[in-house]
TrEMBL record:
One of its GO terms (cellular component) is plasma membrane. Pfam families: LRR_8. This is LRC66 protein. It comes from the Eukaryota. Keywords: Leucine-rich repeat, Repeat. Coiled coil: none annotated.
Amino acid sequence: SGCRWDVEFSVNCSFTGTSTVPEDISQTAITADFSYNNIKTFMCADGRREEWMLKHLNLSNNLISELSLTTCRNLPVLETLNLDGNAIRTLALDVPTPAPGSQTYGKVHRLLPALKVLSVERNNLNRVPRGLGLLQSLQTVRLSSNGIGQIDGSDFQNCSQLKDIHLQNNKITKIHPDTFRDLHKLQVVDLRENALATPLPQILISLNFFRLEAGLSSNAW
């Protein structure tokens, strides 16, 4: 496949021209780099029984346009997922509610329970991915250089561990007043290079200014 084992449990498949993620590699590697290739889709192989031991997965600079993480039940220890530099328009995190009477009705699905860092910079997103609150360990979300136009009050709902939000270089004109209200561990909010026309004291008023770093430069005000 052209992949190289740089150190034990670390595989480098960047610049190999691959269009798929080899399943045999991802079952044994802890760190896997598939950047700068021709990958168009990434399937978590939910039907497989084997759990992958990946902690760090780099899929940046590929050709991915749509991606669903709702079936990623075999990546229990994944901590960082890098999707920068793709063409992602839709990133699905929401798990459809099971119908009453179905086998999964009433069961709580923990999506990527160890994921701490989700990076989707330089893509084609026009909204914050729905369902971020399902990522119970998420601490950092990077969404800069997309086409996001507004931030809704529910976009970061239930993201209780979130510390860093990077939204610079988007097209944001509106942010719901309650967007950051319940993010008690929040330390960094980067909103530089957007289209905000008015200052945001009503949004940041409930946050702890002594520990919050807010980037607001290069907006329209």
